[in-house]
C-alpha cells in the first residue's frame, strides 16, 4: 500500500494541469478523479438558477487560446499554462496592434517571471495573462498580433461534489473546500486534495457526528449549495473551510466569526498537543473564503481554517509561481494530520445531560466512590477522578458541550471525554 505522502503527491500531479473555473468540464474531471478516493455525489445546478441575490452563470469551457506574432509564432499559449487565459474569457479571433491589445494583457511588474491569475466571471470580457518578462520580450508597438480564444459559454450547470458521512447522530459538521482554481497549487489544489483524504479517513472511522463534505467553486458554489440545501445547512453549527494547506511557511489558523467558539479552541489545543507553539492566528475577516457565505446572518456557522501559507500571505499567491514546486505532499500530509486530530476532538464534543438532576448521585451505589467516606479532601488545581465525575454531573445539564465544561473547569478536555463516556455507559449521563 502506498504511503500517504506519495498518494497525495500523485493526486497533486494529476490534478494540477486541469483547467478549472467556477463551472465547466475541468471541475467535473477534478471531481471524477477525487471519486477514486471517496464516493462523491456530483450535483449540477443549472445556469440561470437564482440563488439568493446571485444567479448561476453560464457554463464556461475552453479548448485552446494563443497569441501569435507577425511571423506566426505563438508567443502566448494556453497549452503551456492554463493561467495564460483570463478565466471566463469570451471567444475571440482578431488581429490587433499592441495599443489595442494591451488592455487585454495582464502581468505583474513586481513579480516579472510570474503569470498572474485573473478572472472575469460576471463581466463579458476576454484577456491573456503573461509574465512581465515575456511581455517585454515579445510585444512591440509596430507589430500586429493575432489573438485567438476558443472558448464557449453555454446554458449548462455548475458542478458541486458532495459526500455525507453518517455518524451515530444526525448532528453535522461541515467541511468545505473550493475547486475553482486552475493550475495553482497552494491556493488551492491542496484544499480539495486534503479534503478528499480527510473524508476518506472519516469514512474509515466510526464517528459520533455526521459530516457534510462539499467541493464547491468559491463564492457562487457555496452560495448555490446553501440555497439548494438551506434547511440542512441551517442546522450546522461548526465547520472548516480547507484551503492553502501545502506551502512551506508557518502553520496558522483563521478563527471563526465567534472568537470564543469551540472550533477555535479545538484548533489551538490540537496545535498544543502536536507541539506546535509558533503559529499564526488570523481573526475572522469579511474578505475570507467561503465562510463569508456559511457565516452570513442566515447560517451563522462557525467556520475556521487551518493553513500553511495562507492566501494573501505569500508573494506567489494567485500566480504561476504557486506551483507544485512551491507546495509539498509532506506539508499537505502534515496539515491533514492536524485536520484529522482537530476533527477527532470535535467528534467527541458531545452535549450530555445528567439523568439524576435532583440532588447528588449516590456515587458509591454506582461503584464510583473511591474511599471510605470522610477521607477525601478537595484539592484545588489537581482534581482527581472523583472530583471530575462530580463536576461533570454538576455541569452536564443538556446545554453545555464537554468543551464548554472544560473551559468552565479551566482544564484540557481529553479526560472529560473519557469520563463522560464512562458515565454514559453507567446510565448516569445521556446524550442530548
Ligand atoms: Zn484564490
Could you explain how this protein is built, in words?
- This protein has three domains: 2-57 and 157-346, Zn peptidases (Aminopeptidase), CATH 3.40.630.10; 60-154, Glucose Oxidase, domain 1 (3-Layer(bba) Sandwich); 351-431, Orthogonal Bundle (Arc Repressor Mutant, subunit A).
- 31% of the residues lie in helices and 23% in strands.
- It has 13 helices and 19 strands.
- Helix 1 (4-15) packs across helix 10, helix 5 packs across helix 10 and helix 8 (262-273) crosses helix 10.
- The chain is elongated.
- The structure holds zinc ion.
- Zinc ion (ZN) is lined by residues 181, 187-188, 311, 318.
Count of beta strands: 19
Looking at CATH, which topology of the largest domain would you report? Aminopeptidase
Give unreliable regions as ranges. Answer: none
Q: Superfamily at the CATH H level of the largest domain?
A: Zn peptidases
In terms of quaternary structure, what is this?
single chain
Number of helices: 13
User: Whole-Å distance between the termini?
Assistant: 41 Å
When the domains are counted, the total is 3
Quote the beta fraction.
15-25%
Helix share bin? 25-40%
Bound small-molecule species: zinc ion
Radius of gyration equals: 26 Å
Largest sheet: 8 strands, mixed
Identify the overall geometry: elongated
Mean pLDDT: 95
Amino acid at each position: 500500500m502506498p504511503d500517504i505522502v506519495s498518494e497525495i503527491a500523485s493526486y497533486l500531479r494529476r490534478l494540477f494541469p486541469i483547467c478549472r473555473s467556477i463551472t465547466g468540464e475541468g471541475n467535473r474531471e477534478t471531481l471524477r478523479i477525487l471519486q477514486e478516493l471517496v464516493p462523491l455525489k456530483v450535483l449540477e445546478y443549472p445556469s440561470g438558477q437564482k440563488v439568493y441575490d446571485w444567479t448561476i452563470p453560464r457554463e464556461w469551457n475552453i479548448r485552446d487560446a494563443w497569441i501569435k506574432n507577425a511571423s506566426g509564432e505563438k508567443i502566448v499559449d494556453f497549452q503551456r499554462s492554463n493561467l495564460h487565459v483570463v478565466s471566463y474569457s469570451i471567444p475571440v479571433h482578431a488581429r490587433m496592434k499592441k495599443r489595442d491589445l494591451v488592455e487585454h494583457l495582464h502581468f505583474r511588474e513586481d513579480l516579472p517571471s510570474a503569470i498572474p491569475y485573473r478572472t472575469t466571471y460576471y463581466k463579458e470580457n476576454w484577456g491573456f495573462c503573461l509574465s512581465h518578462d515575456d511581455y517585454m520580450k515579445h510585444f512591440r508597438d509596430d507589430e500586429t498580433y493575432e489573438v485567438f480564444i476558443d472558448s464557449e459559454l453555454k446554458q449548462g450547470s455548475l458542478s458541486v461534489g458532495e459526500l455525507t458521512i453518517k455518524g451515530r447522530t444526525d448532528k453535522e459538521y461541515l467541511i468545505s473546500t473550493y475547486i475553482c482554481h486552475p493550475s495553482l497549487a497552494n491556493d488551492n489544489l491542496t484544499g480539495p486534495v486534503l479534503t478528499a483524504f480527510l473524508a476518506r479517513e472519516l469514512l474509515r472511522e466510526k464517528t459520533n457526528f455526521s459530516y457534510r463534505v462539499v467541493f464547491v467553486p468559491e463564492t457562487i458554489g457555496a452560495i448555490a449549495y446553501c440555497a439548494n440545501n438551506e434547511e440542512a445547512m441551517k442546522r450546522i453549527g461548526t465547520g472548516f473551510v480547507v484551503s492553502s494547506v501545502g506551502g512551506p511557511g508557518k502553520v496558522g489558523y483563521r478563527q471563526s466569526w465567534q472568537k470564543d467558539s469551540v472550533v477555535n479552541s479545538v484548533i489551538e489545543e490540537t496545535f498544543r498537543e502536536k507541539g506546535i507553539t509558533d503559529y499564526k492566528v488570523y481573526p475572522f475577516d469579511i474578505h475570507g473564503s467561503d465562510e463569508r457565505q456559511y457565516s452570513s446572518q442566515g447560517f451563522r456557522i462557525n467556520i475556521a481554517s487551518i493553513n500553511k501559507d495562507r492566501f494573501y500571505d505569500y508573494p506567489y499567491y494567485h500566480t504561476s509561481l504557486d506551483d507544485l514546486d512551491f507546495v509539498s505532499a509532506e506539508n499537505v500530509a502534515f496539515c491533514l494530520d492536524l485536520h484529522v486530530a482537530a476533527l477527532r476532538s470535535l467528534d467527541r464534543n458531545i452535549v450530555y445531560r445528567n439523568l439524576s438532576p435532583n440532588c447528588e448521585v449516590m456515587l458509591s451505589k454506582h461503584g464510583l466512590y473511591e474511599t471510605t467516606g470522610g477521607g477525601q479532601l478537595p484539592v484545588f488545581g489537581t482534581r482527581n477522578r472523583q472530583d471530575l465525575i462530580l463536576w461533570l454531573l454538576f455541569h452536564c445539564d443538556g446545554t453545555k458541550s464537554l468543551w464548554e465544561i472544560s473551559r468552565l473547569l479551566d482544564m484540557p478536555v481529553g479526560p472529560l471525554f473519557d469520563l463522560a463516556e464512562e458515565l454514559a455507559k453507567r446510565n448516569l449521563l445521556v446524550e442530548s
